[in-house]
């Protein structure tokens, strides 16, 4: 099962390295990791997707908390969120195939962002599933190259999940007795 | 006032209450050493940076304050690494200050440049590279706060050489450090406390596992109150020894690989485990799937990442142990477990029969006898540090701890070479006391260069050397699990008495049990470092032993001696 964690971290040099080093040292396998700016220039935001049946998201979360530069971590897996990934896909396309590919692209609301004599680059934004579906359809044409940014996630509604009291007090987890 | 970066370092250390620095100078920290001459902080020159790191750790553990070690860039800093990992594994509050090449040279493979923050990233609680003097004071303030608060641990500050020269306006805030992502927990939640009471109430065979956390949070009183109110026996981890008085009827002694048989039996037969400030290290659990299989488990810790890491538990209480127990004690009912205590008493009797202390005199000198006699002679009151190996386990078993903070040993890392330098550090924390280190011949040979430091400082440190001519603990494994093929474990040494003499350290060798007390008295009469070499049985074994891969109650027990 996939788990999505959102981490707010101090925007300081070396913080990404600390997080990557933690994952390596604890042998946490990460599916995707996206780092980007936020509304606050002192804070960066990471979206971490784990896909490991034997990896407890709580373990990852609690270890992230240990890093001094990590401000807040939320597991948003079971909360109403929007998640988006962005992919660039380069497909082999001579002028005969080009039309077919751009048709597919428009069904998926993907943009054509580069056209060469024998290839075409599409840009698509959406859930991982949507991107996967387009990929499946493009595969017979020959995918030359593809890259994704990794997922970003945000809670729906007004909630930002940011705990004003600090995370440490609320992370006490009571297990079923 | 305007100060150079180097002066900012020293001034900040003074503000943090630092009394002593253990260190070693070199090109990249010379400005700090130069500034040091003008400040009222004692510097102790060890003979290796590893010794400085161990000494700072020993100081921290003996004083409860933050220890400080210093080294130059490159090899100076990398020599600290074993010491840093030792402090990390045992949650010891130590701040390391290393010099770094000039900021303009970073990344260029300059002379003695090493990526020290990179190397120490996974073995520090936090670390810093400081390239501007304006950041120095605040960084040092943060570093001390992080090192000593929450779950304590090592923090390293790497300071560029040009930063040490740079002039800057100095101010040192007196306020509590506030870090957006760092808030050590204090109280456990009300729900978790209530849930704990329910489990405790329903238990028939409860056992407390008390770890280093009890000592670190100073929860000894609360622990005793809890144990007595709920009639719950207490087993201790190696680093927890001293957290609960050995003479108490509920004391089970050490648990785990070389723990007492009765502690391990109690754990395996318990229906409730109360883990207080311990982390279920593999040395205390045996195989995980057979571990305390019938027990519900409650884990109290200040570090949530320890929960369900090795052992899955039923309930977690996140908080400072002293606070949590103080919250818990008034709401737990008075309980009685007479049958359980009786059962434990029976196991205790069985353990006693097998104890080497009950062996008749056979003319041989056993390390356990040496340590037992030392314990008796010194009334168990000495501060004792150890190396790593059999002598360490025998110290844990036979230098019985009635009071807290007297046993200092490398638990999580098991770093040979820790004994003598940590004793030096512990002595600086207790300069009016005698500090003993119980060393192995292998371990001591990793740090015997520090004899010179002991002498230079005239430190009142006594070295009790258990010389068995072997890397004994490894030899024991070879005896049990490798058909007695003693690969690389026979170890020679110098003539230790002559060696000590060369350092002008009084010393004596002992090979008979009836000479032990005389030698101990000589050491106690002589102020300053003394070495006593005990030439003991070469092929003795530490019992009980839980072989790795076995369940905790599948111990190898010392054979009951019929006739010596
Ligand atoms: C730095 C380091 N290297 C290797 C080991 C592995 N090791 C653990 S115990 C031991 C033997 C220690 O010998 P000694 O100090 O003579 O103690 P003894 O077991 O004989 O009492 C060794 C080599 C270790 N713990 N630390
Ligand atoms: Mg030995």
Brief write-up:
The complex is a heterodimer of chains A (177) and B (564). Chain A has 177 residues and is α+β, with helices and mostly antiparallel strands.
List the helices and strands and how they pair.
The complex is a heterodimer of chains A (177) and B (564).
Chain A lengths: L1 E9 L4 H11 L4 E8 L5 E9 L5 H10 L3 E6 L5 E12 L2 H13 L3 E5 L3 E8 L1 H11 L4 E6 L3 E4 L22
Antiparallel strand pairs in A: 1-3, 1-4, 2-3, 5-7, 5-8, 5-9, 6-7
Chain B lengths: L1 E3 H11 L4 E4 L6 H7 L5 E4 L3 H15 L3 E5 L3 H4 L2 H9 L4 E7 L15 H5 L5 E5 L5 H13 L6 E6 H5 L1 E3 L20 H13 L3 E5 L1 H6 L2 H10 L4 E3 L14 E4 L6 H9 L2 E5 L5 H4 L10 E6 L13 E4 L2 H8 L9 H17 L12 H11 L5 E4 L3 H9 L8 E2 L10 H11 L5 E6 H4 L6 H6 L4 E7 L4 H10 L14 H7 L4 E4 L5 H10 L4 E6 L29
Bound molecules: thiamine diphosphate and magnesium ion (MG).
Magnesium ion binds next to helix 19 of chain B.
Write structural notes for this entry:
The complex is a heterodimer of chains A (177) and B (564). Chain A has helices at 15-25, 57-66, 95-107, 128-138; strands at residues 2-10, 30-37, 43-51, 70-75, 81-92, 111-115, 119-126, 143-148, 152-155. In chain A, the strands form 2 sheets. In chain A, strands 5, 6, 7, 8 and 9 form a 5-stranded antiparallel sheet that branches. Chain A has a 4-stranded antiparallel sheet with strand order 2-3-1-4. Chain A has 4 helices and 9 strands. In chain A, a hairpin with a 5-residue loop joins strand 2 (30-37) and strand 3 (43-51). Chain A is α+β, with helices and mostly antiparallel strands and 177 residues long. Chain A folds into 2 domains: 2-79, ACT domain (Alpha-Beta Plaits); 82-152, ACT-like. Chain A, domain 2 (Alpha-Beta Plaits). The relative contact order of chain A is 0.19. Chain B is α/β, with parallel strands linked by helices. Chain B has 3 domains: 2-169, Rossmann fold, CATH 3.40.50; 190-349, 3-Layer(aba) Sandwich (Rossmann fold), CATH 3.40.50; 360-535, Thiamin diphosphate (ThDP)-binding fold, Pyr/PP domains (Rossmann fold, 3-Layer(aba) Sandwich). In chain B, the strands form 4 sheets. Chain B has a 6-stranded parallel sheet with strand order 3-2-4-5-7-6, sandwiched between helices. A 6-stranded parallel sheet of chain B has the order 11-10-9-12-13-14, sandwiched between helices. In chain B, strand 2 (20-23), helix 2 (30-36) and strand 3 (42-45) form a beta-alpha-beta unit. The longest helix of chain B is centred in the middle third of the chain and has 17 residues, at 338-354. The model of chain B has no long low-confidence stretch (mean pLDDT 97). Classes of the chains: A alpha+beta (177), B alpha/beta (564). The structure holds thiamine diphosphate (TPP) and magnesium ion.
């Amino acid at each position: 099962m996939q788990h999505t964690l959102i981490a707010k971290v101090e925007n300081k040099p070396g913080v990404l390295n600390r997080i990557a080093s933690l994952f390596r040292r604890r042998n946490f396998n990460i599916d995707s990791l996206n780092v980007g700016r936020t509304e606050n220039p002192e804070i960066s935001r990471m979206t971490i997707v784990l896909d490991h049946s034997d990896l407890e998201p709580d373990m990852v979360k609690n270890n992230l908390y240990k890093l001094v530069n990590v401000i807040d971590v939320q597991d948003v897996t079971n909360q109403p969120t929007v998640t988006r990934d962005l992919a660039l896909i380069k497909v082999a396309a001579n002028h005969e195939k080009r039309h077919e590919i751009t048709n597919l692209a428009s069904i998926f609301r993907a943009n054509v962002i580069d056209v060469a004599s024998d290839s075409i680059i599409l840009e698509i934004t959406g859930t991982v599933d949507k991107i996967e579906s387009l990929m499946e359809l493009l595969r017979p044409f020959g995918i030359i190259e593809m890259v994704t940014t990794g997922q970003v996630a945000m809670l729906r509604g007004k909630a930002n999940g940011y705990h004003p009291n600090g995370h440490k007090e609320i992370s006490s987890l009571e297990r079923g007795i | 006032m305007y100060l150079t970066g180097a002066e900012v370092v020293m001034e900040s250390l003074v503000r943090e209450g630092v009394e002593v620095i253990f260190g070693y100078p070199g090109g990249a920290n010379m400005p700090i050493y130069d500034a040091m001459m003008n400040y009222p902080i004692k510097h102790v020159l060890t003979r290796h940076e590893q010794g400085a790191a161990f000494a700072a750790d020993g100081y921290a553990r003996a004083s409860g304050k933050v220890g400080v070690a210093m080294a130059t860039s490159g090899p100076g800093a990398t020599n600290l690494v074993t010491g840093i990992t030792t402090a990390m594994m045992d949650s010891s509050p130590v701040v390391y200050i290393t010099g770094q090449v000039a900021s303009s040279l970073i990344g260029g493979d300059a002379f003695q440049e090493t990526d020290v923050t990179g190397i120490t990233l996974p073995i520090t609680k936090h670390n810093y590279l400081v390239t501007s003097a304006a950041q120095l004071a605040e960084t040092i303030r943060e570093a001390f706060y992080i090192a000593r608060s929450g779950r304590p641990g090592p923090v390293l500050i790497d300071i560029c050489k040009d930063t040490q020269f740079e002039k800057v306006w100095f101010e040192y805030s007196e306020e509590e450090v506030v870090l957006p992502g760092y808030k050590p927990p204090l109280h456990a939640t009300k729900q978790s406390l209530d849930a704990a009471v329910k489990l405790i109430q329903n238990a028939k065979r409860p056992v407390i596992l008390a770890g280093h956390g009890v000592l670190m949070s100073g929860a000894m009183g609360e622990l005793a109150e809890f144990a007595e109110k709920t009639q719950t026996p207490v087993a201790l981890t190696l680093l927890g020894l001293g957290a609960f008085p050995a003479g108490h009827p509920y004391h089970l002694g050490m648990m785990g690989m070389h723990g007492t048989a009765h502690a391990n039996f109690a754990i395996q037969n318990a229906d409730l485990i109360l883990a207080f400030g311990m982390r279920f290290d593999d040395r205390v659990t045996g195989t995980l799937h057979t571990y305390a299989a019938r027990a519900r488990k409650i884990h109290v810790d200040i570090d949530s990442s320890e929960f369900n890491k090795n052992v899955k538990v039923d309930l977690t209480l996140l908080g400072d142990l002293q606070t949590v127990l103080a919250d818990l004690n008034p709401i737990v009912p008075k309980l009685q477990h007479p049958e359980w205590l009786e059962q434990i008493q029976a196991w205790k009797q069985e353990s006693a029969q097998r104890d080497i202390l009950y062996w008749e005199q056979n003319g041989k000198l056993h390390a356990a006898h040496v340590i037992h006699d030392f314990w008796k002679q010194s009334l168990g009151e000495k501060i004792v540090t150890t190396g790593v190996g059999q002598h360490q386990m025998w110290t844990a078993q036979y230098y019985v701890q009635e009071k807290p903070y007297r046993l200092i040993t490398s638990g999580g890392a098991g770093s040979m070479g820790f004994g003598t330098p940590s004793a030096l550090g512990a002595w600086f924390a207790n300069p009016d006391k005698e500090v003993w280190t119980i060393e192995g011949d292998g371990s001591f040979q990793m740090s015997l260069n520090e004899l010179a430091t002991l002498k230079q400082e005239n430190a009142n440190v006594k070295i009790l050397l258990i010389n068995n001519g072997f890397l004994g603990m490894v030899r024991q494994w070879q005896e049990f699990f490798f058909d007695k093929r003693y690969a690389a474990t026979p170890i020679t040494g110098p003539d230790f008495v002559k060696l000590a003499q060369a350092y002008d350290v009084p010393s004596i060798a002992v090979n008979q049990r009836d000479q032990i007390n005389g030698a101990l008295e000589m050491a106690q009469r002589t102020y300053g470092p003394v070495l006593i070499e005990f030439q003991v049985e070469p092929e003795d074994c530490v019992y009980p032993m839980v072989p790795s891969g076995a369940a905790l109650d599948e111990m190898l027990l010392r054979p009951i001696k019929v006739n010596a």
